[in-house]
Amino acid sequence: MTKVVILVSRRAGMDQATFSRYWREVHAPIAARMPGIRRYVQNHVVPDPAAEDSVCDGLVELWFDDAAAIQAAFNSP
Hints:
CATH architecture: 2-Layer Sandwich
Helix content: 25-40%
Order of helices and strands: EHEEH
Distance between the termini: 23 Å
Oligomer: single chain
Structural class: alpha+beta
Number of domains: 1
CATH topology: Alpha-Beta Plaits
Strand order of the largest sheet: 1-3-2
Strand content: 25-35%
Shape: elongated
Number of strands: 3
Largest sheet: 3 strands, antiparallel
């Protein structure tokens, strides 16, 4: 099993709540249909009001059987 980890940032001008809702309700079902994906995990950042900026707004874990499955998934429409 191979895991791909990607840091995710929201678009400029998008607030945290809108980003989290879109990522969970719109993007997740699309990502879950990628061929060869075994597991899809979203890790949402809990905003810290005392911090100026976060490094990212989330982290996604994509699990595949092997490198060939990763390649097939990222080459899919």
